[in-house]
Amino acid sequence: MTLAELAEHLGCRLEGATESDAAQTITRVNGLDDAGPGDVTFLTNPKFTSRVAGTKAAAVLADDSLTGAPCPILRTATPSVACAAAIGLLTPVVVPVAQGIHPLASIDPTAVLGMGVSVGPFVAVGPDAVVGAHTTLHPHVAIGPQVRIGEHCVLHAHVSVRDRVVIGDRVILQDGAVVGGEGFGFATRADGTHQKIPQVGIVVIGDDVEIGANSTVDRPAIGETRIGSGTKIDNLVHVGHGVKIGKNVRLAALVGIAGSSIIEDDVVLAGQVGVINHVRVGPGAQVASKSAVMNDLAGGQTYAGIPAIPIGQWRRWAVRYRKRGKGPL
Questions:
Q1: Annotated catalytic residue: which of 138, 156, 158, 241?
Q2: Model confidence pTM above 0.85
Q3: Residue 126 pLDDT > 90, yes or no?
Q4: Is 241 one of the catalytic residues?
């Protein structure tokens, strides 16, 4: 599409463009340093502003803080959102699974598949499962008995959804994700051996959730594990049994959340954060990488350290540690 058409699709104000610039064909989104003619680039972090002057891009997506560029500017209050939309618009659509049911799929006669479902080879759908309209099941997906999956979902290869799991609309499960596996529950006998506690609860996932590759969401012994709408989970994340996660939460790679903890709305847990069982992280809290949440955390603050404490306090302790060679850390 042309630069002018792209600006219209994105709802951006096109500044500094000649008639020839506006008619230029745009084929992809690229970084500031790598972009060339036919590319649109972006400035989403002000620390890279100095690199705009050297870009060879046909245009740059930026907010009003950018005062000048060697190319036209696509003005928007949210360049990161516009950039994401531009990538979607300019990337060719790949359809790896054709609409309909592949002859090598195994669909139980009691399962119900909605209109426009796409089912790849070696998919298994169990008894009384329901798959909503326009959902795509990539090869080797396994859907257990009585599962409920909403509309317009995408389950990538080797995803496993265990029995009675409930999944909302527009959910994306990346390759190898396991939803509804048994929680880690054992009772210790008098002789020191372990009695398995049956994990018979369910997992409920809201709308517009994404779960990354090889991440796991466990079912509890009783009750439910719940993930709220709009939450985004990275690769290799473990959500323990009975955990309640609110809306629009973001969990980066290698986060681990132990059983029965509560992560409220809009929380951000950075990479390798660990959360012990039965704690609550308040709404809007952010926890820095490699921190350990060992007590309840109030909302609206940033935390770091082991145990996680307000980040200002953690920085002061870190300075004392460096100066003395020892300290509370």
A1: 241
A2: yes
A3: yes
A4: yes
